[in-house]
Amino acid sequence: MQVFHGIGVGGRQYKKAARGIKFPSIKGSLSKELLRKLAPKKTQYAAVDIGSREIKVVEVSTADGYPEVIASGRLTTPAGVLGEPEGDEDLVNALNEVVLYSGIQSKEVIATISGDRVITRHIKVPVMPAKELETAIKYEAEKFIPIPVDDLNIRYLNLGEMESDGERYLHLLLAAVPSSFVYDYYEIFIRAGLVVAAIDVQSLCLWRVFCGLDTSAARAGTAGILDIGAAATQFLVVSDRGLQLSRTLPVGGNLLTQSLAENYGLEFQEAQQLKEEQGELLSVEAAASAAAGAMQMDYSLRVGLSNLIREIRRSLDYYASLKDATTIDRFIISGGTSKLKGFREFFAEAMEVPVDFGHPGIPGLTGGGAAEPLPFDPAFAVAVGAALREIVEDV
Ligand SMILES: Nc1ncnc2c1ncn2[C@@H]1O[C@H](COP(=O)(O)OP(=O)(O)OP(=O)(O)O)[C@@H](O)[C@H]1O
Ligand SMILES: [Mg+2]
After folding, report:
1. Which of 91, 227, 276 to mutate to test the pocket of ligand 1 (most atoms within 8 A of CB)?
2. Distance, CA of 45 to CA of 59 (rounded, Å)
3. 74 Cβ below 6 A of ligand 1
4. Ligand 1: distance of its center to the CA of 20 in Å?
5. Taking the model in full, what pTM does it have?
6. Domain ranges of the chain
7. pLDDT-derived band at 57, boundaries 50, 70, 90
8. Fold agreement (2-217, 223-357)
9. 223-357 maps to which CATH number?
10. Which 3 state secondary structure label does DSSP give 91?
11. Nearest Cα residue to atom 2 of ligand 1
């Protein structure tokens, strides 16, 4: 097991370990400094978010002094599981295609890792020297991860000091990924002509995109952030910009698709298309005079949504049970499922607090939503956050 400060796996580190590539060593700090000055300043940053429904790519430029999205693209994620030879081939081809047509120019990319591949935990350890911290983290990781720690890549992010019962503690976000998965990931990107500069955790991408910029909405009070994808939902609680909690819920828009498939007697893909093109949740007033077809759609969606809401409530209860919990005064939503027509209103009613679509507040973003004309496609939140990795200072 290797433990490093800071979350994200360095591409060079990997290449060195896995392929035996040697990098020329620069002797003396003077030449290192000189090299840094001579190297052109990086102004373009690209990110690839391989979601279970869609691959999203984004390129951000800071050439004009502020971050701006200069290219983006999306493509259906091919069926097939990462790690299976045939699935890998399709994924390589899909990556090639989306990079080509989106026009992103950087060959070095930040990749995100899906929620079910990474195990993240918030832990609290007494304040201690960095050397002892590594042993403490290993010990903590062994407690909650059923995989031998030597087969894992473990990273941590220090979220700051906190006080509890008169003792000082460090609040750490731990992320662990099986090493074999990390190597497979790098391999796939290399085959698609891309170098993974770092693998990022989705919750941090979301923090960056919605809380990390001066233009961000979530700068005061306590906000719940939900990125509702297809297979998973990322849930964060941010209080006065500090990340208090992040969790991956194993539920998302697929629940709605399955519910539609059962109710309409359709295959999954057909039900997904029906949901994305015609899905609509009705308000109480609209339901009073709705046609039978609209009622059937509304009912089918709500059956799937009830499970999603149950999972969200469970996490809210968990947050409320924490010692430092404060009242969540609003929600910020993103992810493809938030585009469902009527979802924002439905969710606001269920949570009894205001709910808004998250917007990074940076130029160049294209709109989205077959159903609602949104200024920013919420499915891109994680990808944009990943592209901001080297631009916005973390937490
Ligand atoms: N207009 C729409 N109405 C309803 N649902 C939609 C709409 N557009 C997309 N979705 C749903 O959003 C989900 C995809 O969202 P997103 O792209 O955020 O997920 P992903 O990142 O691919 O998946 P995950 O994060 O779970 O791995 C799918 O379930 C899709 O059917
Ligand atoms: Mg996603």
Report:
1. 276
2. 6
3. no
4. 39
5. 0.89
6. 2-217, 223-357
7. very high
8. yes
9. 3.30.420.40
10. helix
11. 276
